[in-house]
Amino acid sequence: MLLVEKVDKVYPNGAEALENVSLRVNAGEIVAVVGGSGCGKSTLLRLIAGLDRPTHGRIRLDTETIEAPHPAVGLVFQEPRLLPWLTVAQNIGFGLSDRANQERDDLVREVLQRVGLVDCASNWPRELSGGQAQRVAIARALAPRPKVLLLDEPFSALDAFTRASLQEHVLDLWNAFRPTLLLVTHDVEEAAFLADRVLVMRPRPGRFVAEIDLGLARPRERYGPEVEATKRRILGALDRSLRLHPKGEELAPAAAI
Amino acid sequence: MVTMTAIETSHLAEEKSAVTTRSEAPSRRLSGRFLLGFVLPVLLALIWEAAVRFGFAQGRLMPPPSRIFATLYDLAITGELFRHIAVTTARVAAGFVVGVLAATLIGALAGASRLARDLVDPTLQGLRAVPSIAWVPLFILWFGIFEQSKIILIAVGCFFPVYLGMLGAILSVDRKVVEVGRIFRLSTFGLVFRILLPAILPTYVVSLRAGLGLGWMFVVAAEFMGASEGLGYLLVDGQQLGKPDQILAAILTFAVLGKLTDGLLAAASAPFLTWQDTFAPRN
Asked: CB distance from A83 to chain B under 8 Å?
């Protein structure tokens, strides 16, 4: 279980990125965090990944407190961030350098098969399409079999077709390995299609303002009525959150405009 | 011929990818491009030769290619040429190694630590603004007129491009790539060897080549300050004894050596850089 407990994050320049954020994600659950850009979604993931430290509060994975990157937590960035001097297979095996060669090769081969890129194993990253590169990035994060996989708007730079196929792909991988998935996105459809639970975030400072339990079975029909209805629920929650005035704004005299 | 085809077909069948078929045509094109590079110098040499032959130029101060090659040949059969080449190449090599080692170390230090950078970079940038030939009189006073002063001068020449390249490369390593290393919990050692070194390698190689080029430039200056051997000595000797063919022979040798060593350096680094996503078409 992943626990975020009353976390504040204030950047050195004084910007309040997160305020009193708490979150609980059960093992094997898929949770999507939605919100506009700059609402602190990525900050939250960086804290959970151990790349940054919270100013207050703490983050726990089962019994451990996360203060630095943890072997059981994988992160897929918004861009693939493949190392251009390593082949696809070497990139995927990058986080496995502590394993024996044989074990590493096996893990890499298995995950390569899962993402359907066996033929590209010895290619350079520059030879991949955007979708393939992001698949390699997901495979790299999954290869060490993390308990928690964090996805930071992983498909936002891809076209709609590629995005849809990669979402299916992530579900396949989740079915195979059952990691806890925490997905940050600004794509409401993505959240409705993938998640068990959706959390809506508001910026300045970043905080959760709504939680929606989707209660939908899988597999889901992307354009079916249930997903459509869920999208409207999420959009409604986002809309309400926009009307919720942040602290102090009520005092602004609207008539003066 | 039959065996050739057999080998080729079996090879193709083995690979059964487009790779082999793709690489055949470009290699022919590459040798064509290689030959293209000779067109201009050969043409100029022929015109020059003809001009002297047919009396349009007298060729005393501008000896025709045939005379230059004759001089080169004479120097070569006596073994003198190779002695000069060996001496000069050894000086460049020694200066290059010293300069590159110092530049790499100090550059890496300045790149890794802000304190070190604030401490040494302003001074080095100031020294860089001094034309390096200006050190010659001082080096002679300090280190004498023999090998030591020459090698130090060449080392100074090689130092700056490599230092700048190293420092710039380290400072421009993408934070995003470093974060990938952090996510996978690399140690400092791992971060340096698996992320930083490969990331800076392309820029570093370019700076090495620039440094080597300056090394060849500075060896001439170094040998001008008094040498009894070396290609620079051939130049001075040619000037003092009025032998322009010897000067041009030495210049020609410099051109060949410079191009050759640069090519060697580039070829030695090429296997490590095949991953680069560059503008230039590759084969």
From this structure: yes
- Residues of chain B positioned with their CB less than 8 A from the CB of A49: 183
Residue in A49, A84, A97 nearest the CB of B275: A84
**Domain extent listing, chain B:** 65-270
Within 195-214 of A, beta carbons closer than 8 Å to B belong to none
Q: What is the CATH number of the domain that holds A108?
A: 3.40.50.300
- Domain extent for A90: 69-162
**A73-76 and A148-152 as β-strands: parallel, antiparallel, unpaired?**
parallel
d(CA A212, CA A195): 10
Q: In the structure encoding, which two tokens stand for residue A121, read together?
A: 């194993």
**B15 — pLDDT class (breaks 50, 70, 90):** very low
Instruction: Examine residue A109 and state whether it is found in any structural domain, yes or no.
Output: yes
Do the domain assignments include residue A235? no
Name A104's Cβ contacts closer than 8 Å, sequence gap at least 6: A93, A96, A97
Residue of A74, A81, A124 lying closest to B275 (CB–CB) = A124
Tell me the ipTM for this assembly: 0.82
Domain B65-270 matching CATH 3.30.70.930: the answer reads no
What confidence tens digit (pLDDT) does each residue in B145-172 have?
788 889 999 999 999 999 999 998 888 8
Give, in degrees to the nearest 5, the angle at Cα B266 between B262 and B268: 115
